[in-house]
Amino acid sequence: MGLVKSAMADALLTSMWIFTMPFLRIFTLQISASLGVQALPMAAFFITTVLVTLIMFIFTLIGNALGGASFNPTASLAFYAAGLKKDMSPLAIAVRFPAQAAGGVVGVKAILGVLPRELTETMKGPSLKVDLQTGFLAEGLLTFGLCLALLVILFRGPKNPLVKLLLMAATTVGCVGTGAKYTGPSMNPANAFGWAYVNNWHNSWELYYVYWLGPLTGATVAAWVFRFLLSPSPASNKEKKA
Asked: Residues 130-172: pLDDT tens digits?
């Protein structure tokens, strides 16, 4: 029953996260326009980073309240492969990842049903702008960089929680900007599946190769790099406790 509750919590949090993301772009554009800095890329980066930091803070609280729920399969896999998420197992992955994908569908359908048509007509979600192999590499490398950065920030970074969130937000925004001309990007298979489902390409090889296998491979490699090269040694942990 615990696993079922975790899967339901994942689905709920994922739907909320994906529902929130389009508003991020809308608010960034509105704030940039009101400040008269819409033509300045660095201003948009700063505004987006601040908004993402706020959203991450809110979702961290919600995720904790839901018992450690996650809205991204790559993050769950990275923590598991790095040996940092004891409640994950192959069985949990088999149950929770589909739940997150289902949450992605609910989130996309909800946002398309709420926003005006003139806005939703431009929303297509992640899309492949390069060949299949380049797309796989782009999603894999971007997710590798993002997951490795998150692990380092969380477990080897500054102690201040707000600074941690700010660094994670800046890394996320930077990765999204870098991958825009390649795959969207997604770096979140649940998000990609949600948009693929409503756009009727959820049964395509492109989705699972580029937007599932690519990010999950990148997350796994990032976790292994952190676990074997960057994570604090047991001896150092004992010294800190002493």
From this structure: 999 999 999 999 999 999 999 999 999 999 999 999 999 999 9
Tokens of 204: 């395509």
Q: Which residue from 178, 227, 189 is spatially nearest to 80, judged by alpha carbons? A: 227
How many other CB atoms are found less than 10 A from the CB of residue 122? 8
Delineate the domains of the chain, giving CATH numbers in brackets.
2-232 (1.20.1080.10)
Q: Where are the alpha helices (DSSP H) in the chain?
A: 2-35, 41-65, 73-81, 90-114, 117-120, 132-156, 161-179, 189-198, 205-206, 214-225, 234-241
Residue labelled with tokens 């991020």? 24
What pTM does this model have? 0.91
DSSP state letters, 124-173: --S---S-HHHHHHHHHHHHHHHHHHHHHHHHHS-S-HHHHHHHHHHHHH
